[in-house]
Design goal:
single chain; 268 residues; Fructose-1,6-Bisphosphatase, Chain A, domain 1; eight-stranded mixed sheet; five-stranded mixed sheet; 9 helices; 15 strands; 27% strand; globular; binds adenosine-2'-monophosphate; binds calcium ion
Length: 268
Amino acid sequence: MHPLLTIAVRAARRAGDVIIRASNQRDSLTIDTKQRNDFVTEVDRQAEQEIIQIIHKAYPDHAILGEEGGQIGDNEVTWIVDPLDGTTNFIHGLPHYAVSIGIEVRGRLEHGVIHDPVRGEIYTASRGVGAFLNDRRIRVTPARSLEGTLIGTGLPFRDFTHAPAYYGMLQAIASKAAGIRRAGSAALDLAYVASGRLDGYWELGLKPWDIAAGVVLVQEAGGIVGNLSGEPDGFMDSGNLVCGNPRLFAALVRDIQPHLTPSLMARS
Ligand code: 2AM
Ligand code: CA
């Protein structure tokens, strides 16, 4: 395993321990609201602190972009950290959340770890090496069209500007797929596409820490990640992302495109 990935796994496990311990004492949680429907707990902050400590012990100079702490430092290596993806689920005692750590080297995403501490699952990927779930190789599904597929997504919850466009996409895709799942953790949605539990996934308005690790996982599992117009870039800035195996990716984009508004196209 690449040395950077080894540290990322260690950090993700440690954060997972913090989260599981706290999940047994949810009644005493302090919950703050960052924006409407966007919550943070002391667990998010503690887990992020654990991760930062482990990274900086091994690599004192590396930069970190954390959901809770923002950007720390400036370096050709940036660790992109979501200490708890799925905080809304966590707060409700719904056991579906994860730790996500992506590593960008000279502007390119190179490594990713997603850790589901409830199921004891660790997803890892390094560019050119492949994607793994608990050390077993994973791959995207071979679905050739939307028929019979299970597709992950996220409904708008904070910013409803693009909600009408989004619901147009949802209607088009839901009318063809076998099922749609909105599970509440973008990181796990991406890990599930990489491991074949979902055939594809799309969502609007994501943040870099939601997707950095998952992008490497899906790509290394043989999938394509792109923006709403089907281009292979732009999604880290816009937060609007589509993924699946190459054929399914194209099928999703075909059903998404008719619903793109000029402002979504400008920031696709
Ligand atoms: P978070 O828990 O790290 O904030 C995509 O749906 C992403 O949006 C999730 O991975 C989740 O990441 C974030 N999110 C924040 N608030 C949410 C909410 N109320 N419902 C669903 N997702 C939410
Ligand atoms: Ca989070």
